[in-house]
Specification:
It is built from eight helices and six strands; from the N terminus they run αβαβαβαβαβαβαα. The protein is α/β, with parallel strands linked by helices. It has one domain: Glycogen Phosphorylase B (Rossmann fold), CATH 3.40.50.
């Protein structure tokens, strides 16, 4: 199977977390440096391995890889068929992404998703699901549609109409870290516990680290 080959050599006891910086507009992309800081937290707090999904543009993953402290724990992917994307997502314990099609794919697979919103509204687009959460999309803006589908005017024009780079910048790393800490700790422990149960006989059993500020 593709996923087995792609993930060959990784420890199944380490939580596998999928991250993506891709989005249809720069206004919908959480800054790569903040996503990289999130990846560093995942590695340092939970000993995670990271699957990084980038867009088709050449060098799309470069800003993220340049900003992370643990490039050796990142497995970048690009230009994969959707079936292969689905196969890799199904091996993950969590998906962190922007408001994109990948968010909906993860939710459809039953994967806990933490999605970052900017000019679009989570009330309209966030699919929800067990263990999932939406960040952002809350700054007051007369252009954000909160009760109907369709792009806000800023996405049509390709620029923030409130004088910002993008309202998605309002989502900070600490906010994401709290979401990640509550989800990966619980989900990763369950995954490792299930793995250990498979490998050990019955009757044998097989820290919380503060988030840096």
């Amino acid at each position: 199977m593709f996923a087995d080959r792609f993930l060959a050599g990784r420890s199944r006891e380490k939580p596998l977390v999928s991250l993506s910086a891709a989005a249809s507009s720069p206004l919908k992309r959480w800054p790569a440096a903040r996503l990289a800081a999130t990846a560093d937290l995942l590695v340092e707090l939970f000993d995670s391995e990271i699957l990084f999904f980038s867009g088709p543009e050449e060098g799309a993953a470069d800003p993220f890889l340049a900003a992370t402290r643990h490039p050796d724990r990142i497995r970048p992917t690009a230009n994969l068929h959707l079936k292969r994307v689905s196969a890799l997502l199904s091996r993950s314990v969590l998906l962190i992404c922007n408001d994109t099609g990948l968010m909906h794919m993860g939710a459809a697979l039953g994967l806990p998703v933490v999605a970052v919103f900017g000019p679009t509204s989570p009330a309209v687009y966030f699919p929800g699901g067990a263990g999932s959460a939406a960040l952002g999309g809350h700054l007051p803006c007369p252009h954000r549609k909160t009760a109907s589908f369709g792009p806000p005017e800023c996405l049509v024009r390709g620029e923030c109409l409130q004088g910002l780079r993008s309202c998605i910048d309002a989502v900070c790393v600490d906010e994401m870290a709290e979401m990640v800490r509550s989800r990966v700790g619980e989900i990763g422990n369950k995954a490792r516990g299930a793995e250990a149960q498979e490998k050990t006989p019955r009757g044998h059993a097989r820290s919380d680290i503060p988030i840096p500020r």
